[in-house]
Amino acid sequence: MKAAVFRGPHQPLSIEEVPVPTPAPGEALIRTVACGVCATDLHYLHGTPTFHPPPVTLGHEISGIVEKVTREGGSIKPGDRVLLPSVISCGHCSQCRVGRDNICESMVMFGNHINGGFAPWVVAPQDSLVKIPEEVPLEESCLIADALSTPFHAVKNRGQVRAGETVAIFGCGGVGINAVQAAAAFGAQVIAVDIDPGKLELARKLGAVETLNAKEGDAPKAIRKLTRGGVDAAFEVIGNPVTLQAAFDSVRTGGRLVTVGYSEQDWTLRASRVMFREISILGSLGCRSAEYPVLMDLVRRGRLQLAPLVSRKLPLEKVNEALDDLEKGRVMGRQIIVFPEEK
Prior knowledge:
Blueprint: E1 2-6, E2 14-17, E3 27-37, H1 39-46, E4 56-57, E5 61-69, E6 81-84, E7 87-88, H2 94-97, E8 108-109, E9 121-125, E10 130-131, H3 149-158, E11 166-170, H4 176-185, E12 189-194, H5 197-205, E13 210-213, H6 219-227, E14 231-236, H7 241-249, E15 251-259, H8 271-276, E16 280-283, H9 291-300, E17 310-314, H10 319-327, E18 334-338
Parallel strand pairs: 11-12, 11-14, 12-13, 14-15, 15-16, 17-18
Antiparallel strand pairs: 1-2, 1-4, 3-5, 3-9, 3-18, 5-6, 6-10, 7-8
């Protein structure tokens, strides 16, 4: 089979022939239908090391159809339409045992620890697979694995956003745009901040009541004016010290700052403001496995949308083009790599 293989930083992915994977006991073989192209894939190209040394097949937002199971009698069977959560947890470490499997001490991520979904076939533990209802489009559902689940967890569990609160989302890219629609779905008044007018327009369509272009003025000052003191919760979904500071400056006394974007850079904050105003600063990573059925049902009922998120669908051979467009800021929402069924 052909796969997009990561052979090292600062070079394009290599489209090459690799063996079809063989499922181990307890695993299933899945025919990939679609896989989202995420900024995390760019981090590896820029030099962030993968846990599995190259070569490794990238791609961690995967939907597909079960071809083969190795354990009979379970809920998963051949022909099932399934979502592969981007991170597989062990189920027995201290974090998993208290329900925080998203920060499992032995987590395994597709396209990082193991081969991912930029290939027509992939293997995964049967117990990790999430069935996709017939009402949910199979290709677009790959975005639930990360682009939707990660901000959903950040908004619901880390930020604990409630109806009637004010929320600012800094960054309306492939993940941030879903923080907008998740917060709006919970009944919050959402202010979306970005530098791309197109992304801000999409944010309005997905529930933002106000949008601010950070190139056109002091966004934190404007937010404090709009909200008479600051938002209840701000979410930074870029991973940049500048936007982290802006999000921090937008939070009211007693509010919360949730960091969702990834960055290896240091950020210096004023400790006196954290202390005197009792501001909570929280990190957020991935999504708990228990949330996937909830998310799937919200999508099925139309409370969260997938179709507006997809900017385009591309064949595997154009994955480097997709990554280049993402790098240059030419993408709204998410690009997905699709794998038509071989005849």
